[in-house]
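Thread amino acids onto this structure.
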């Protein structure tokens, strides 16, 4: 649509139509690329379109993902599918109680020929790293992930080794199995952009899964070729920062996060990292919706996966059977929505 001076407020300068057209074209380009990923993942993952969208949002927003669900609900398949559609390096680490930090990060090895040590990089040196059953490793190994998740680097014997971009950790865990598991510390949970809860499929989706496997298409993930190159993904990520978000929306995000620290039913509220996560993911989600600006509904939709692992309820509320999502929903109703 052409914008002429008669549509402008008095004293306002006319925008550069070329710049506006370029911005719109960029958003359309990103939306088309994301739509290809959505379509490809939907052919492999039956249903779960909302979860597919959240995974793509996290990839665009440069954040780590924690997938939680019962065994057999395609947590690992989702991670492998997302990695397979991107032309990036992929590693999988199976967390076990006897896993050591060096098994994840790497270790210095002495070379007799040169009489010196050389660093042997561990499996975490990749672009997308699937950490299966992340809560099965003890605290010492859990702590090895703190630096690499936040700073994208590994410090070893006074040397610092940077990880190549993009870098994304996808962790999986079972919410009900406690034998041989170690609870993730709040400091590590806070480093995950999203905690995505994956439930059982519906009866119709279950039937579609059976048909897919009956027709021999249950392992289609290995048949798909990468859609986005590493360079394209990094370019798309840079465009996410250009998405407009108004001061009113920023204030809305701030009020929501601050409310978690003052709520009577919340023992531990969300940190400023949660505010940043809401802002970044809202920009990426706006792109999925074909917009170059954020609206309040984006924040309301993304608040549960951003906040559910960053708050701790009062013990009495947990004993009464309340879940984090219940309190988040109540909190969202209490915070005025900007219009």
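Threaded sequence (339 positions):
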């Amino acid at each position: 649509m052409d914008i002429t001076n008669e549509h402008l407020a008095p004293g306002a300068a006319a925008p550069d139509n070329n710049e506006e057209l370029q911005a719109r074209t960029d958003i359309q380009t990103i939306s088309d690329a994301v739509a290809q990923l959505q379509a490809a993942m939907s052919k492999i993952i039956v249903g779960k379109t909302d979860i597919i969208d959240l995974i793509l949002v996290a990839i665009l927003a440069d954040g780590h993902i924690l997938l939680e669900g019962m065994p057999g609900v395609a947590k690992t398949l989702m991670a492998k599918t997302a990695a397979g559609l991107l032309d990036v390096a992929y590693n999988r680490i199976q967390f076990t109680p006897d896993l050591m930090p060096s098994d994840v990060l790497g270790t210095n090895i002495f070379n007799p020929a040169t009489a010196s040590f050389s660093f042997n990089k561990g499996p975490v040196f990749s672009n997308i790293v699937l950490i299966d059953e992340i809560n099965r490793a003890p605290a010492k190994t859990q702590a090895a992930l703190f630096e690499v998740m936040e700073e994208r680097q590994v410090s070893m014997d006074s040397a610092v080794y940077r990880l190549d971009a993009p870098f994304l950790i996808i962790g999986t865990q079972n919410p009900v199995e406690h034998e041989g598991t170690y609870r993730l510390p709040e400091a590590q949970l806070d480093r995950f952009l999203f905690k995505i809860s994956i439930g059982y499929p519906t009866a119709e989706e279950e039937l579609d899964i059976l048909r897919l496997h009956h027709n021999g298409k249950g392992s289609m993930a290995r048949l798909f070729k990468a859609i986005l190159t590493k360079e394209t993904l990094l370019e798309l990520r840079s465009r996410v920062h250009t998405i407009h978000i108004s001061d009113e929306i920023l204030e809305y995000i701030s009020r929501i996060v601050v409310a978690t620290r003052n709520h009577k039913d919340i023992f531990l509220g969300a940190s400023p990292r949660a505010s940043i996560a809401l802002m970044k993911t809202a920009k990426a989600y706006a792109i999925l919706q074909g917009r170059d600006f954020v609206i309040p509904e984006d924040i309301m939709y993304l608040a549960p996966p951003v906040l559910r692992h960053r708050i701790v309820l009062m013990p009495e509320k947990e004993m009464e059977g309340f879940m984090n999502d219940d309190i988040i929903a109540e909190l969202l109703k209490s915070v005025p929505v900007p219009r």
